[in-house]
TrEMBL record:
It comes from Agromyces mariniharenae. The chain crosses the membrane at residues 16-33, 39-59, 94-114, 120-143. Keywords: Membrane, Transmembrane, Transmembrane helix. It holds the Pfam family DUF4395. The keyword Transcription does not apply. The keyword Iron-sulfur does not apply. This is DUF4395 domain-containing protein. Residues 9-145 form the DUF4395 domain.
Length: 152
């Protein structure tokens, strides 16, 4: 007999995902600013696909989230509380928008757009991974308060 998934997610999962993402975005920025334009563009395109996965399939189905759920969470104590998955899912959408802009601008010849987009996304991922401060989540809450996004 299977049990339904809880309504919320372990808040450590998005931080774990942000840590991996931050490292990969830093690699993109270093490659891009270092002149390895194609390698940076390809890696950023892959990260944009991962952000799309998290934004459209939800953070519970994101590959890094599944890694956390399978290998990390069983070794941790249960979280004190669960969090709503909608803000981190929205944050994945913001990451997708930033990275896909860099990919598209890089594809039309603006090579500097790739490491700049990666750097912007890196800052957000770093803040989440290290300090637990999710910029995309804060943007989501601001839009909910402004009634741009419905509460339900």
């Amino acid at each position: 007999m299977s049990h339904p998934e809880p309504a919320g997610i372990d808040p450590r999962g998005p931080r774990f995902t942000a840590g991996i993402t931050a490292v990969l975005l830093l690699v993109v920025a270093v490659l891009g600013f270092g002149g390895a334009d194609l390698a940076a563009w390809l890696l950023l395109a892959g990260l944009a696909a991962l952000f799309a996965w998290g934004a459209f399939a939800g953070v519970r189905r994101h590959p890094f989230g599944l890694l956390f759920k399978r290998f990390v969470r069983p070794r941790l104590a249960p979280p004190d509380e669960l969090e709503d998955p909608r803000p981190p899912t929205f944050a994945q959408g913001v990451g997708f928008a930033v990275t896909v802009a860099g990919v598209l601008l890089g594809a039309i010849g603006l090579q500097l757009a790739v490491p700049v987009a990666a750097s912007l996304a890196f800052v957000a991922a770093f803040l989440n991974a290290v300090f637990g401060y999710c910029l995309g989540c804060q943007l989501y809450l601001l839009l909910v308060r402004a009634r741009v996004i419905p509460r339900t």
